[in-house]
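Final report, Chapter 2: Outcomes

The project's central promise was a pipeline that accepts a single protein chain and returns its three-dimensional structure in a standardized token representation, suitable for archiving and comparison. That pipeline is now operational. To close this chapter, we reproduce one record exactly as it appears in the project archive, with the input sequence first and the structure output second.
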Amino acid sequence: MLAVIGFHAFPTSVPGGFVGVDVFFVISGFLISGIIFSALERGTFSFSDFYARRIRRIFPALVLVLGSIYAAGWFLLFADRFAELGKHTAAGAGFVANIVSWREAGYFDGGADTKPLLHLWSLGVEEQFYLIWPLVAWLAWKRRFDLLALTLAVFSVSMYFNLDRIRRDLVGTFYLPHTRFWELMAGAMLAHLAHATAAPSSLRALRWLRHRYDAMLAAAAATHAASVMGTLLIAVSMVVIDEQRHFPGRWAILPVAGSALMIAAGPDAVVNRWFLSRPLVVGIGLISYPLYLWHWPLLSIVRLREGQVPGVTARWIVVLASFLLAWLTYVLVEKPIRFGPRRRAVVPALCVLLAATAVVGLITYRADGLWSRTVNRTDKAAFSAYYNAMRRTGIAGPYRLECDFMELVSDRSRTSIAPSCTTRGENGTWFLWGDSHAQALSPGIASLVPDGMAFSQVATSSCRPGLGPIDLHVPGKRCVRANTYALQRIAELKPEVLILSQAGDHLSTDWDALANHVRDLGVGRVVLVGPAPMWVPSLPEIFINRFWETRTPHIAYGLSTARLTLDEDLRRRFAASTTLTYVSIINRFCDADGCLAVIPGIDPPELMTFDAVHLTPLGSVYLAQHVLRPVLRPGSAQ
């Protein structure tokens, strides 16, 4: 829990803190499977008792947090954000937040830190597991099937899906239950070894396994070594794993193995006894569930209201507030409901409350965020809705997403793009090649193409243009496919102008070699368009929260200085190039006051980008007319 909070509040300090969720999965699999196996051994297992315990454990704090965040959103969030919150409230109450997050994920999806209930995806995975696993274990026990073999089989199948799909569907592998169950099953296997649970047919094998397990527990040196090794594995995973890794995949083995070793070591092992048994650590463990529920929504709401990542002091305040709310939730809500005299009577009431919460959330989503709320009756609300709609659905046509080897909605790779993307004109062809930043130039370039010229485009999200097999980490090998196809069509079309653009990492590409190669294929001129300005976390949010009254055209707040430095390096590198023409957007649009953020002469104001860096269609046209026209059509009137 501390690792997860550290990652969410201070990601640069704890880059791999999100593996705390994987540690939690192992612990959950061990504890809950242990309850199931013990009850099966005693012959007292009851589905009603099992799920009543889960309801008393999970529902009270969840209802409180969902209701509180919904109430805060009512007063703070515009319609589009509130509609999204309603959907996530319903998903969280229905324990399908992981499925909804998977379906929502996309290249132009809003940032994770703007979704107050995104963290409930892990609760969805856990509860989906416990809707299936008790029934499977009970049936196996009744039919005298080897439970250990069953556990190993489920573990192996889920692990296979995890390792296989990570190369093709990174988002799905992260969120979907069948690629995560192996982590809970690792804990279930340990729980099996800790109980004398076995059908007669596996008794000998179980005795041998239990003998080895008990022998380890009896050897103090072995348990100490296991706890220390487990601690080191978890610590290493928090350092070497970051958001750039393909996770879970094989990287998740580190925290899962570390957690399994620490659990297997038992309570008397050195780390478990001298650290994890300390009153303060135990106390954090007791409030860990409400702490998990509270911390992320508070961080997210502060982030939404400030329009930027909160400062260090603000984040520390949020963390401390999360601890306070978690303790109050545990003392005033959890304990009385879980251990009070009317434990059975509260179960139906909790089910009704959670169901009502889901219904309210669903109604809010279906009603498009309830526009009748006071907070929506402002120009700011309409402005925010405009850019969110553009981000989600408004760029498919202008960006020519039919020319992308990635599907926008699902992030899945395509095997081909539309034939209309690469056609030959009567008087020749202009060709645009790159990633989504090339797509952002498309509306503007289209406004410049001379009559009789065709405008071809191969621009694939997250894929840089290049000669070799680059961007191999992108799922589905779509970058290799995109660049192979682009070079093939360039050789056939022999375009008069080839325009190249990409998000970043320009200095890793041998642009002279690429330019010489395509010119050998018949390209007339090669134009490399440099990086566009980037405002973090997003230009619309910064404009609404900081510059709404002043309508400042040039904005330095939130501006990425790294891109300014990159552009300066590229201008210097290609100043005397004879192989390509470098076009600097930043040199034209940025000055001491910042970079051009508002398109001149339009009222109400139209921003240059709809998110952090991707141009709006009008912004693209403005850029093309003022920056690209002198290069692509020298001598023509603006």
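Archive annotation: Confidence is low (pLDDT under 50) at residues 197-201.
This record, like all others produced under the grant, will remain available to the consortium after the project formally closes.
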